[in-house]
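request received
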Amino acid sequence: MARTYGGVAPEQRRADRRARLLTAGLELFTSTGFRHTKITDVCARAGVSTRNFYEEFTGKEDVLRTLHDQINSLALAHVTAELDKVADADALTRISTLLDVFIATVTVDPRMPRLNYVEAVGVSPELEAQHQVWVDRWANFIAAEATRAAEHGVAPKRDYRLTAIALVGAGTGLLREWQAHDPPLPVEEIGAEFRAMMLSAIMRPEKILELPGNPGARSGVEQSSRAGARGDARRT
Amino acid sequence: MARTYGGVAPEQRRADRRARLLTAGLELFTSTGFRHTKITDVCARAGVSTRNFYEEFTGKEDVLRTLHDQINSLALAHVTAELDKVADADALTRISTLLDVFIATVTVDPRMPRLNYVEAVGVSPELEAQHQVWVDRWANFIAAEATRAAEHGVAPKRDYRLTAIALVGAGTGLLREWQAHDPPLPVEEIGAEFRAMMLSAIMRPEKILELPGNPGARSGVEQSSRAGARGDARRT
DNA sequence: AACCGTTGGTAATCGAGATTTTCACAAAGT
DNA sequence: ACTTTGTGAAAATCTCGATTACCAACGGTT
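response:
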């Protein structure tokens, strides 16, 4: 067993087919849409037989999950690499770096945000779990940098977990719009907005605003539990 | 034609079935997941035959689109109603109101954000278009309030379109996490975070930060077009 | 009370696409 | 050259769910 075929090792041939399937999947999922792409379409475009498909993946979703992971991993790798290079820069520079590299990486190819933020949503519990994991990772990243900024005295010392989650959401929203809009939104403006929002969210004072006399909105709409509605979220 | 059956007019019976189908759809789409719910499931739970189903809807997606629209419309109605009540309050109070009412409305039932931000994503071009329309509406709303704040001198005069889109994304992200997390995130903290982020994003100065000497990240990663990387996005 | 038009539920059809199996070939070892 | 075995294409099967068609029941009408 394990002979070399066609000049290349079987391992290599396998890897090639797998790579081609992933490429085809990325292309079709983001154009036809995941729901409407058939396995045979992917196989046809990749030049791979269905038999080989099932040798590599358990089904369509498996391909999607792999792509989703790949894209996030790629971005994370780029970000960590850059962050290492500016290991001892000031905190705000590091945050800007994190963000610039992230945006730069995923906007290289509009199919990446499309797959990550549109096609891979609401497909299966497994994929939702995977999404959850990545949101956590990115949020932790952001929170860690924010904490660092706080230690350097350029941001207040507080819990940044929710802020980080909201920032991940902001980035997701911007990128989803970016890839959907026609005419396309300029990448530079997306990046600038994301950066400004992140910096202002991190550097903002604990109490943004003490509402005068009338404290916020209060009326007809049935409201579940409205404690802490004046911005006094706090931990510990 | 048009007799009264079972005591009620046929119109009424139709409307009832339609309503029951929508309720069943909301329940099943958010538990089983849209992909994996079958039309017959919806019919069974609603106590409606497939024949009647096709009298009301063209298919599963039609139900989903209707629900998506309903939820957004509900939230918008609540928000505009409240905003009218504080028509001449100061700008920041209005913004807080907008936000509080929105959060209060959609967190009444976790199935709403689940359907809106998870199940209804990446299903079909039509649904994506509908999503786009709603993002635009909400973003315009936010941008209008921000502009109002600027006119009152509590925020800089600038273009708030992208900021508004990012804020919509932030809200989406927070709510998606909220409905997915176990143990659940406290609603009050979500609201507080969203409000703080919105206020700091709107009130932030034009130039958040002039990067010192080394201007941001620049290196290995291939970058598409990096003009404006120092935050000089501007219109007109 | 018999009739007719409308309505609803059930059961059959129909089609699409995923998964498996078969078959022929090609390449390596002997 | 011959056998053996991995490999790929295509065809066959097989399952599932959407859609349609049919039949029964019901209520008002005469």
